[in-house]
Write a structure and sequence with these properties.
Blueprint (H helix, E strand, L loop, with lengths): L6 H11 L11 H10 L5 H21 L5 E5 L3 H15 L5 E5 L1 H7 L15 H31 L3 H12 L8 E4 L7 H13 L4 E5 L15 E2 L2 H17 L6 E6 L6 E2 L11 H6 L4 E3 L13 E3 L2 E5 L7 E2 L5 H14 L5 E4 L6 H12 L7 E4 L6 H15 L23 H20 L2 E6 L2 H17 L5 H15 L6 H4 L2 H12 L20
Length: 536
């Protein structure tokens, strides 16, 4: 990420144009300096270029030390992303290593004009670019609001020491802008459609595109049944389309995440053309479920037959024209998908969609991939589609039984393990401990560079509104709002408690002063009720 000019450098540059300290129209040089510095990025394409470099630096840091993995939460509005980054900065002092995940699921479910829809690429493709644009607009506005506060401190400085301290804070300011990993689904069409949409996402600010190997017009959520994959050559063409979009727009360090859904996908739409045994098409075909064609069971009218491994066979074809893979071949297909995406498609990161959160399973697949691609790195979906509590408790139970630590009857085998009765048991505490270190372990053992949760703000919004509604419309009335929302905001230092300031009231007042001086009609005077809240 290019270094921003310092306060002194910027002021000297503008003073060289206006030595008097003012423009001919009476605009102060110091006001120009503030506007220049609080405008942290000129365009969203500049954001894409800068954030791509940030991701590349983070990937190199991870290669040197797997403890330096990155994280993100899926956000379905600019405000969610803004509050997430503010929280991280408040806690850590920096947002480095924190990204925003833009989920196609949440765009379909919450951000399209046609209502709440499932994750099947039925939403308008432009809605994805619109949300990226919105998120970066919100993050840039957070920069403006925060920088305006720093300049207020500078204007209030009464001594040279106070002035230099304020300038140092301005120069040390870290932007709220972070990388976005943007879900482009299966490309919303053919390779040319993928390229055109990729360009729009990049122009909106995306430095990283995540694309999956499902059929575009039959796309399913990764945790639903009925997933249909495409031959690897088809997917590679879409990876190349994304790369060309990055290159055309000058985002040289753009990052592509190649996702495979093959672990849970038992169907394919095409039988690719193989020219010789061992080529890419043959490696895909070999996993098809087939029946031998014999004199007693010849090819019938309308059937398809192929030579595979020296035999004439009939691929199992469903009434809808799709072809089935053999049971139990998912892991092998995942490994081959990933190797092809890295070596032929130029992908930078991999995404293996799994049906359970199991470190051993993922580590096993990554170990096979790394035999061919030693530096393979993953993005992993810590999905809300998993029942994390039940899965981890079952894993602990199975391990302890195998080790002879407990007997079969000590804990139930099934959904009963979810009961709160088991929260304080030794097994419940061990499962929670494993949850706490899950991301650390999967990053160290399975090459996971980036850990994300796809839909957390969907579920958090539902839970929080339910919690407030139960109390407010129940017996607690105003106490429900104050106790569960406002009082907690104040005590945690959440800046949004001063909601007028959060959306730029003070920023607007400053601008009015810049152009109107004492004539400025300001909103942040004594009568503003935000004065009842202490500053962040």
């Amino acid at each position: 990420m290019s270094k921003r000019k310092t306060f002194s450098e910027t002021r000297s540059e503008i003073l060289s144009r206006y030595p008097s300290g003012h423009t001919p129209g009476g605009v102060s040089v110091d006001d120009i300096v503030q506007l220049r510095l609080q405008n942290t990025f000129d365009t969203h394409l500049d954001i894409a270029r800068a954030m791509a470099r940030v991701m590349r630096e983070d990937m190199a840091a991870y290669d040197a030390d797997s403890a330096r993995f990155t994280q993100s939460l899926g956000c379905w509005s600019g405000f969610h992303a803004q509050q997430m980054i503010k929280s991280v900065k408040r806690m850590r002092g920096t947002a480095r290593g924190t990204y925003v995940y833009l989920s196609g699921w949440m765009v379909a479910g919450l951000r399209n004009r046609w209502g709440h829809l499932p994750d099947q690429s039925m939403h308008e493709k432009t809605a994805v670019a619109d949300l990226i644009q919105e998120i970066y607009t919100s993050l840039c506005q957070a920069d403006e609001v925060a920088m305006n506060d720093l300049f207020k401190d500078l204007r209030a400085a009464r001594t040279e020491d106070e002035r230099q301290k304020a300038i140092a804070a301005i120069d040390a300011f870290e932007s709220h802008v972070v990388p976005i990993i943007a879900d482009i689904d299966a490309g919303f069409g053919n390779e040319h459609a993928t390229y055109l949409l990729a360009k729009e996402l990049i122009k909106a600010g995306a430095c990283c595109l995540q694309i999956e190997n499902q059929v575009s017009d039959a796309k399913q959520c990764g945790h639903q049944d009925g997933k249909v994959t495409v031959p690897r050559e088809d997917f590679i063409e879409k990876l190349r389309a994304c790369r060309l979009a990055f290159e055309e727009l000058g985002v040289d360090d753009g990052v592509i995440v190649a996702r495979t859904d093959s672990l849970g996908a038992g169907l394919t739409q095409k039988v690719p053309v193989s020219r010789q045994k061992g080529d890419m098409a043959w490696e895909y075909l070999k996993w098809l479920q087939t029946e031998p064609i014999t004199a007693d069971d010849p090819v019938r009218e309308g059937e398809l037959a192929i030579y595979l491994g020296g035999d004439l066979v009939r691929p199992l074809r469903l009434p809808n024209g799709l072809f089935a893979f053999r049971e139990g071949t998912g892991k092998a297909r995942v490994v081959e998908d990933c190797i092809a995406s890295l070596t032929h498609g130029g992908a930078d990161l991999l995404w293996i969609e799994t049906d359970t959160p199991n470190v051993d399973e993922i580590a096993g697949m990554v170990a096979e991939i790394r035999k061919v691609a030693p530096n393979a790195k993953l993005t992993y979906n810590n999905s809300p589609s998993f029942n994390w509590t039940l899965n981890l408790r079952k894993q602990v139970r199975a391990q302890w039984i195998a080790e002879g630590r407990i007997a079969e009857g000590d804990y139930p085998d099934g959904n009963e393990l979810m009961k709160s009765d088991y929260d304080v048991t030794e097994l419940g505490r061990e499962a929670d401990a494993r949850l706490q270190r899950f991301q650390t372990e999967i990053s160290a053992r399975a090459g996971v560079f980036h850990n994300l949760i796809t839909l957390p703000t969907f579920h958090l919004t539902a839970k929080s509104v339910d919690e407030l509604s139960r109390g407010y419309f129940g017996d607690q009335k105003m106490l429900a709002y104050v106790a569960t929302v406002q009082r907690e905001e104040i005590r945690r230092g959440v800046s949004a408690v001063r909601h007028q300031h959060e959306v730029g009231t003070d920023l607007g007042d400053t601008f009015k002063e810049m152009v109107a001086g004492e004539r400025a009609l300001k909103a942040g005077g004594h009568a503003n009720t935000m004065n009842q809240f202490a500053a962040e």
